[in-house]
# Entry
Amino acid sequence: MTLHRRDFVKLGSATALLSALGLRATAAKAPTIGLIFPPLNYPLPPDATRLFPSGVNFVSNGLGFNGMTIDSYNEAIPRALPRAKELADQGADLISVFGSSITFFKGAAFNKELTDQVTALTGKPATTQSNGLVDGLKHVNAKRVAVATAYTDVVTERLKVFLTEHGFDVVATKGLGYERIPEGAATQEILLKLGAESYKSAGKADALVMSCGGLRTLDLIVPLEKTIGVPVVSSTPHGLWHCARMLKVASKIDGFGMVMSA
# Structure
């Protein structure tokens, strides 16, 4: 079948053209992000569908761990590779190990080794929630950072080391001191105060990191940025945003802070 220019104009659309050629138009499949959470039966955070109501799908599973301690991380992390294989088998196009502390606790080299192992096993690109923190800070050209966490001093110090290894100057840290977050112990008011105090103790910082995937921070980002005047990068929101960026999904999102809208 020969089509002339006037025929293209007459057909008027790609779908009509494909029909004329005897082909069927098919919608592009939305990419799927696979998320591995530290808790065993952890529900998909509402942040995922609020940030990406369309254009990306999610599948998830969990490691099962006994709290935010070094011993617990060491016990749980060997299950990451089998869980990654499960997600790949379910159709994940990218796999991220969520739970910031369970991926930064042994430093930058371990974090990279973990993602390399996931990719080698599954053939899929891989990342971590910790990489989302780094990506967010780099996206706004932050150098000096303040840190606020849910963790004990021991785990918070591991985050300081990890960020320092990535070239950031961590000028202040403040944690809530939890191995497990008690119900009602991390309200928006408490987290706003925590973030503001960490930033204030820094003297001057380019950004604030709010770390722990168990903290509900999506609606905290804008109020906290208005209070301190610099970008806020937080584990779950920016971990999801980072995954979308890796998959080339539109990730400029207004209404959730300076990083995503930049």
